[in-house]
Amino acid sequence: MIKADLLQRNPMNRNLFFVSERRKIMFKIRYFFMLLLTVILSAFSCAAQIGDAPIEAISFQIDDRTDYVNVMKNELPVIPAFPALSKKAGYVRGYVKNTLGEPIVGAKLGLKSARIYDAYIAASAETDTKGFYEIKIPTGGAKFDYAGLTRDIGRSEKAAVGLHPADGDLSESYAAASGGVENFVALPYGIADANGINQNPKYRGNYYGGSFVIRYFIAPPGQNPNDFPRMLAAGSEIIITLIPIKVVTDGKKIARAFEIRKKVEVSSLGEFYICNVPIGEYEVAVKQANGKALRLKQKNPTNSVFGIKPQETKTSASLIFNPISTDAKTTTASRGNWADLEITVERP
Predict the structure, then answer these.
(1) CA 245, 249, 250 angle in degrees (round to 5)?
(2) In whole angstroms, what is the distance from residue 42 CA to residue 243 CA?
(3) Residues 6+ apart with CB under 8 A from 143
(4) Helix residue spans in the chain (DSSP H)
(5) Which of 31, 74, 166, 214 is the most buried (most CB within 10 A)?
(6) Cis ω before 188 (30° cut-off from 0)
(7) Using an 8 Å Cβ cutoff, are 309 and 317 in contact?
(8) Residue 191 to residues 91, 239, 270, 311, Cα–Cα distance (Å)
(9) Is 223 helix (H, G, I), strand (E, B) or coil?
(10) Mean pLDDT along residues 218-225
(11) How far apart are CA 126 and CA 145, in angstroms?
């Protein structure tokens, strides 16, 4: 009442009051927009990186005659430097690191001798806190039987993965008389067996990165695909996206997102292999060119913690790759260690 009375008695007071109120309103508006801008920039920042790893977007256009893609092509992660180490007669020894140059503790490595009367003599070791190992060579000479480690791959699950010889060349045999030195690095992706890829580029064991295959039924060409429930139209395009949720960091500290545009073949059954994806957890989705999502359903393995979650969805799912096992002794040096992961896609 007192404020209203003052305003009525003195027009100057009334003008000052309205100017003051207008300034308060303008300040609130500016504050609101600054807050909104901060939220938007923060959202873009989160979308552009995972933790400290910026995201690199990679896209592919695949024709109807091609049934696989190696998403990392011939790229290899950074290979770290290793300490100088001389040979020691009677032993194979070396170091195991990750692509950041950090020692890996608990990697498992095993040698086996040449076959003697239908039997092998084996020897093994684990890396210590410095990533160092030393294995006594069995009688005469030996070669690597396994070399791997068990690591996290996403969704709190673990997988045994093979190790890569740091010099890119794994010796066929190590003589006890001279001994040998072999350093290894754990790679999240890369070509494990170049010769194997020349023979079968779709085979998952030829890559350190994870792999999976999508399969789909195709409506007869020239006919309305709507008359064939769940089937895809021959010659149409499907778009597969993989958005990283949590990935194993490589030496470049970059996460990758993938968009693969695949033209559907003219056939009754289609299949497409996606190979050498950096190890980790991804959000996977498949849609038609018109933007309509396709249903995903995991066919193999069944009732497993690996693969997609949920195992059937009309939208997107979390994906981790399917290892042969979680025991590092099942791995093979210079090979991937992945089992089948098969996902069917269909119109909902």
Answers:
(1) 135
(2) 19
(3) 111, 112, 171, 172, 173, 174
(4) 2-9, 11-48, 194-199
(5) 214
(6) no
(7) yes
(8) 28, 25, 25, 29
(9) coil
(10) 92
(11) 14
324-347 mean pLDDT: 95
Q: What are phi and psi of 329, to 5 degrees?
A: -75, -5
Residue 114 phi, psi dihedral angles, 5° rounding: -65, 155
CB atoms within 10 A of CB 164: 25
Asked whether the predicted pLDDT for residue 5 surpasses 60, the reply is no
Q: Which token pair is 32?
A: 């609101």
Helix residue ranges, H only, 154-274: 194-199
Q: Give the model confidence (pLDDT) of 79-101 as tens digits.
A: 999 999 999 999 999 999 999 99
- Maximum CA extent, the chain: 117
Residue 172: which pLDDT band, with cuts at 50, 70 and 90? confident
Please name which of 108, 19, 135, 118 lies closest in space to residue 326, comparing C-alpha atoms.
108
What is the token pair recorded at 209?
């990165």
| Stretch 68-84: mean pLDDT | 96
Cα 183 from Cα 187, distance rounded (Å):
13
Strands (E), 264-340: 269-277, 280-288, 295-300, 307-309, 312-313, 316-320
